[in-house]
Amino acid sequence: MKRIILAMMVLIMMPVMVSACGIGEQTADGYENATIAHTHDHWQQGASSPIPFILLDVRTPKEYAEGHIAGAKLIPIQVLAERMAEVPHDKQVYVYCHSGARSSRAAKLLAAKGYTNIENIVGGIVAWKDAGYPVEK
Known about the structure:
The chain is α/β, with parallel strands linked by helices. It has a single domain (2-130), classed as Oxidized Rhodanese, domain 1, CATH 3.40.250.10. Helix content is 39%, strand content 14%. The protein has helices at 2-20, 36-45, 61-66, 101-112, 124-130, and strands spanning 32-34, 53-57, 73-74, 92-96, 118-121. Strands 1-5-4-2-3 form a 5-stranded parallel β-sheet. Strand 2 (53-57), helix 3 and strand 3 (73-74) form a beta-alpha-beta unit. The protein is globular, with a radius of gyration of 16 Å. 31% of the residues are buried.
């Protein structure tokens, strides 16, 4: 009976876990590209998400101050290599910048350093705002 209940729980949780992260197509550089909608869905789950995550903003401090995704950690691309220890290995890491160029470079760097749960947010903060999602100042 316990096995049946456990199997049912796994089947029920599978769609939630699949929609949370890590199932997209991996790039040749070792990270995935995440859509704004996918990222927003996971962001809305917050601390209750079955898959822990962080949002990593790799823009400049000035850009960050002008508006960022609530809860995002700022580590500018220019200093990411020196501050790698601040990026957890045990969480899904969503990386974003203004439109996606710097974040794809950051995602590639993280993947090259052994990170396995990296998702580059396609379109960056511009796409986030265009979708009508909130930013914090």
